Amino acid sequence: MPDVRLASPQGKWILLTTILGSSMAMLDSTVVNVALPRIGEDLDADLAALQWTVNAYMLTLAGLILLGGSLGDRYGRRRIFVIGVVWFAAASLLCGLAPNAGVLIAARALQGVGGALLTPGSLALIQASFHPDDRGRAVGLWSGFGGIGAAVGPFLGGWLVDGPGWRWVFLLNVPLALLCAPIAVRHVPESGGGGKHGRFDVLGAVLGALSLALVTYALIEAPEGGLVVAVTAVTGVAAGIAFVVVEKRRPDPMMPLDIFASRQFTAVNLVTLCVYAALGGFFFLAALQLQVVSGYSALGAGTALLPTTALMLLLSARSGALADRIGPRIPLTVGPLLCAAGMLLMLRVGPDASYVADVLPAVLVLGFGLVTLVAPLTATVLASVDVSRAGLASGINNAAARAAGLIAVAALPLLTGMGQEAYRSPDAFDEAFDQAMALCAGLLAAGAVVAFATVRRLPPDCTRPECRTHGGVMAPPLEGVRSGRRL
């Protein structure tokens, strides 16, 4: 049984290193969007390159995050966490030094691999290290400080882009890793490893990531047309089908398909796909819209989006408590509709947009929508499966959210006719942005309909989330493996 107490020096060191590690990955999920216009200008990159700058990271992170958790269970959570931190820092250094868009995109893919190793490990280390009496408070502090990091991220990213330059958005990870990794090695006890484990589902992980990569490539390159794009699209779909077949037949699959026998679990993942596809598209395009069309600086654009994360950080725990009382159906219906209203309000954001009159109302409504839906969504995911599969269910839901954002970033420019040089033309980008916001609002409305039609009240003895505070906007919070008991 873990026995580290939160008030002890070791407990404080464990909390610090896990917060630093998770914050590195969370920051890079949000701050890079603010830097995109300056990256494009500096590296002479077209819109497709900017899409890949975002998607290369999300691709490897979404495709490998389940495998990353399994590696920690087998070889030791601290070991895999430290490897992930060092890997992430090395890839960040390569991003910061990238001489061209191709190197930056490759480095971003490597960054995602590091994120997939360290992200599951940060919470798992807390759950495996702290005494049961202190674990809930430790998780609360970890998620709260992580939320603060997520809230500060766009502001910090904007300040770096306008000041030292966009490369420091990535280079900042290096000193954080130099602080985080030695603390983990010295103060965090090893856990996991040494037990009996099934074979690694490497084939499943490869097929899943390959399918996402090929479909993403086909969507981004579709405006160019040609045989290569068509073959890539067909091959991506075939790889996805092969992934399903492999997962169905393997004795120890990365994603056991029987978990979807729960109608509630399947339904809430459909809601997740709708919601986080819309959010992924929004945060990619909104940072560009504010800078390209409205004339905001990078700092101004990052600060403009800050209220969304701040609201989540301040109110997500209360939203979870309300959902416990009234059930998840209403919050999961109302939340997406509020987010849709926020995106429709973004249609007012055009040339010379006023922050107070145009931008702030939209991000506040969007923020209240996220506050309303994220905590009940996580609770419903965990309650839909047996307690022994809570960690797996959370990982699948988190990966689904990231994959949805990945596809949205690839597909929205195609669906709105956004050309490769559109982000250099305020008029062209503004027109396509309005169409994209309408599509995102439609996705959110579809998610609300699915939730209203399928989500039911949770049983009173179901598994409850440990992460009550959440500030991330790109994916729901990860929950770790439970020790055979309901929380």
TrEMBL record:
Transmembrane segments: 12-36, 48-68, 80-99, 105-126, 138-160, 166-188, 200-220, 226-246, 267-290, 296-317, 329-347, 359-387, 399-416, 436-455
Membrane topology: Multi-pass membrane protein
Domain Major facilitator superfamily (MFS) profile residues, every copy: 14-459
PROSITE patterns named in the record: MFS
Cellular compartments annotated: Cell membrane
One GO-annotated biological process of the protein: response to antibiotic
Highest taxon listed in the record's lineage: Bacteria
Main localization category: membrane
Entry GO CC: plasma membrane
Keywords, ordered alphabetically: Antibiotic resistance, Cell membrane, Membrane, Transmembrane, Transmembrane helix, Transport
GO molecular function: transmembrane transporter activity
Pfam families: MFS_1 (PF07690)
SUPFAM superfamilies: MFS general substrate transporter
Name listed for the protein in its UniProt record: DHA2 family efflux MFS transporter permease subunit
Annotated organism of origin: Streptomyces cyaneochromogenes
